[in-house]
Amino acid sequence: MTVRTQVHTALYTGADGGLLERSFRLRVVAGPDAGVEHTLDEGTTMVGTHADNDVVLTDNTVSRYHLELRVRSDGIWVKDLETTNGTRHAGTKVVQVVLTGPSRLRLGKHTEIDVVPEEHTIPLTAYGEDRFGNVLGATPAMQKLFALLARVAPTEATVLLTGETGTGKEAIAEAIHQASGRAGGAFVVVDCGSIPHELIASELFGHARGSYTGATSDKRGLIEVASGGTLFLDEIGELALDLQPQLLRVIDKRQVRRVGETAPIDVDIRVVAATHRDLRAMVKAGQFREDLYYRLAVVRAELPPLRERLPDLPALARHFADEMGRSGFDLSAALLDQLARHDWPGNVRELRNVVERALSLGTSQLELSDDTPRGGGPTGAPGSTRLATGGDPASVLELPFKEAKAALIEDFEREYLVHLLARHKGNISRAASEAGIDRNYIHRLVKKYGIDVDRG
């Protein structure tokens, strides 16, 4: 018997950031089912003798549910389901393994299966326009990003957006949605960092009436609301560990189960996630599930900080002014020089807030404070620079919750690190030991905030 399925390809970003088109094929090469072929789609593929499996075998030494396989951006994740006769790879019995190249698996006593990857690089053509959706950018970094997103947006590929706070990840996510075949559906934003832990399960998955105190009626969760459209999971790194398995099941099965119910509900969603945190470091630290990370990071796109795309700054400032109904925004040569020497820790969001504040004060020009030196160092350190806020330290309280929270966290991280390194004269190992954090994390913060370690 030979079963053949059409080859379905999936898009991935490789280790170098390039775009790959990849498919994986299973071929039974030994045993009573030799000749069976099956293409591994995104999600989970089950192998065994029970009729419910995706690949059904007749070898009686293979268990009813023998093997689980999952396509990841780094290869095929294979898990033996505690079987009687086991699964072997390269002669060794395995519990789980990630296959990154052509491999052979032995199931039970007689069946052997080849796992064959088929992939090629997709060349990205020059984008050629200065905006993607409502996001502006003519610099090489943004043009490269737009070229990648323009190729990926029309597909169903899951996208993980990374980058510093304020770089415009939500705007990019919405642009992906608008450039996809789901543009007529809902674009639903879930801010994983702002919903209280005790409410997020209900908000995401919905709940049945009476499932907990106060649940007086059935409620659709945001995942259900997004069906037919795009679900944007902002700040996914803040999602609690105990909720991550439930989200993984939703992404894998495209089914959601409301709190208090047992029957799943089918959903048709495309997932875009975003974070300013290093999820790979969180995986290593046990703070984020590895399987969920690889399910989200199918296509990875990093948004550059504003300080690395300063030629875009004048167009961005005028664009924000136009959005606020004030065209003809005045940007003198002297002011542009000042703006270019600001380090923009809040990135594009900070620029938008500065433009909005200037307009609300009835001026057509941006203003920088005159009492702080210019440079690229961290706030409060030598060579730092701040944009004028009217002299009111409480002005952050005028921002939306998410923006205010991000600004305060970044200020804390920067100031804490400056003083910590000063106490240890720039010795990162001793600083990490005192703070109780990984030295690699300090290295990342030092790079993020441009801190001169030699000066501390």
Keywords:
single chain; 456 residues; alpha+beta; seven-stranded antiparallel beta sheet; five-stranded mixed beta sheet; 23 strands; disordered N terminus
Fold and architecture overview:
- α8 (313-323) crosses α10.
- The protein has helices at residues 140-152, 169-178, 197-205, 222-225, 244-253, 279-284, 290-296, 313-323, 333-340, 347-360, 401-423, 428-435, 439-449, and strands at residues 10-13, 19-30, 37-40, 44-48, 55-56, 67-72, 75-80, 87-89, 92-93, 96-99, 103-107, 111-121, 131-132, 135-136, 159-162, 187-191, 206-207, 219-220, 230-234, 255-256, 265-266, 270-275, 299-302.
- The chain is 29% helix and 22% strand.
- The protein is of the alpha+beta class.
- Strands 1, 2, 3, 8, 9, 11 and 12 form a seven-stranded antiparallel beta sheet that branches. It has a five-stranded mixed beta sheet with strand order 5-4-6-7-10, covered by helices on one side. Strands 16-19-22-15-23 form a five-stranded parallel beta sheet.
